[in-house]
Amino acid sequence: MSPALSHEEIFAGRIAADERIEPKDWMPEGYRRNLIRQISQHAHSEVIGMQPEGAWITRAPSLKRKTVLLAKVQDEGGHGLYLYSAAETLGTSREEMIQALQSGRAKYASIFNYPCMSWGDVGAIGWLVDGAAIVNQISLQQTSYGPYARAMVRICKEESFHQRQGYDIMLNLCRGSGEQIAMAQDALDRWWWPSLMMFGPHDAESAHSSRSMAWKIKRQSNDELRQKFVDQTVPQAEFLGLRIPDPKLQWNEERGHYDFGEIDWEEFARVVAGDGPCNAERIDHHVRAHEDGAWVRKAMLAYEERHR
Amino acid sequence: MSRRLPTAGPQGARPHAIPRNGSDLCVLTTRLADDALILGQRLSEWCSNAPFLEEELALANTALDCLGRARFLYARAGMLEGKGRDEDDFAFARGPEAFANLLICELPRGDFAFTLVRQFLFDSFDVLYLRALADSTDDALAGIAAKALKEADYHLRRSQSWMLRFGQGTEESHRRAQLAISALAPYTGEMFEMDVLEARLLTDGIAPDRAALKTPWQIRLSETLSEAHLSWPESCGNISGGRAGRHTRHLEALLDEMQAVTREMPGLSW
Amino acid sequence: MSANQPSGQQMPRHHMPLFEVFVRSKRGLDHTHVGSVHAEDAEQALEYARDVYTRRSEGISVWVVRSSDIVASQESDQHCFFDPNDDKPYRHAAFYQLPDEVDNM
Questions:
Q1: Section A136-161 average pLDDT
Q2: Which residue in C2, C15, C16 is closest to A23 by CB distance?
Q3: Which of A228, B3, B265, C22 falls between 20 and 30 A from C76, CA-CA?
Q4: Domain residue ranges of chain C, discontinuous segments joined by +
Q5: Which ranges of A175-208 would DSSP assign to H, the alpha helix?
Q6: How many CB pairs under 8 A join A and C?
């Protein structure tokens, strides 16, 4: 018989053994809070991320593109829903999380604070933003919290078409007219750096990274994931015949990776702090839709109470 | 488990023999396609604007059904016409006067009550129409109708239950639904209008008799309205003209947006 | 993904409560938990479960159940619920050595 283990020892043992932590398990308060922060931020990113591309569904230039884009943006909503549900197993509620988003207490991926200005941007978002998200999400399938890991498995499976549809838009533009090629290049120019920023600050400067790694909430560091994304994306850009806007970008034989230039961290900090081109617009949109829907939710409740 | 998205459009539609009255049939098919596209476009405007996430997904599903249906129908219309036009030529290279959709489909999405009341009024007609169209002597149209009917049954299930929730919900939801009903009522008559072209197709057993669907539609409507404690306006007039290309100003605005990219850079592939 | 409230405690009624969703992916298989939705009542939950969790033909049948209606064992039950069965190897076929002549049993 082993001596009775404390809660902390059982928890630490499970993390060490790569076992999943499940909702009813005891967990350190910091672990719970860290997870709620990360999962809700992830959920908010999916939901806010619907806006820039969503605005192009009505303008998509072919019926096939329109259908695919709507299905894709709908998926983002679904993924937000899966993630909110995963966070709710930790004792928070969707309503609380939405309040935190709307009041600015909770963050979402800063990339969505950049404007989606052309059809080329729709392609670039699918290719680069979803591409970066997938690199991160594949890694998170191994996260230590069971509901989060399971949501990630489902999301990765569904998102496999998202990046392809974006790349397909880019491919089509790059095989098209001069105007279309210019549109694709312009989109890459504007979305490349923000995409690299999606992986967050350097490991040394990341506020939550080390604890998240120790708890196996995060499985790979920001810089590792960013490198992975660059390595896989550069050949894709070459195939399109597009130029990546980084003069320092070059293959490093010794490392077996691409070297690339430094991110403009001041811009990163500005956008995270709420001073990006579209921060206010994104939150206003969310608040408006939520408030416009308030009477609908009240009517549902009244109806249910009448029929209980 | 990777599944391909269901294909619509040219690759999805099976070639069928072109019947004698091909040009009439082409017009009818285009009308039905326009209804589906314009309504789908309106529904897709809800993306990121729904009252909560579950409803966000449900609205998008309905919109995708409409767009899918439009693509099958345009592909068939293009084949019947035989001039090499594809679905995108129909959707992106025509002006408002060439669109033949029912006016009810083009009205702006309004609030959530307006969208779901419109859906109920249209869906309850749609299931009756599609059920009849599924018996069409034109196999292609009958096939598209049978597939669309399954979708429409679900749309109606949803929109009908929303009618009850609005009507028996709060004072506000009741008021909003009632306003939507009054605004939409004048546009419902057009769903049941027959013209000489559809009358000819009716004789050949290709097109359903719209006029004959009005009574069953009204029965369902009054049952639902009474259960929801909602009412139909005493007199509402009748506004129509969509089939002849006479539209409200809203269609022009809708097309300005939908065709913005293709008009700015015409003649390109996307 | 059930809510993490202590068992035995009456849940206060929430606006748009959580429902757990179970999907049978094909005939012959069990319904499997796939996630949850918020809805005001069971009928609405069923429709939203369909709209959210079967968009890629994942299912042919859907169950929904109010999350607060699920009674779950607690971690504190672990030692008396599950541990006692860890020392009963005789319930498993591998416990029994068969003579080589009598394989396949």
A1: 95
A2: C2
A3: C22
A4: 13-70
A5: 178-197
A6: 55
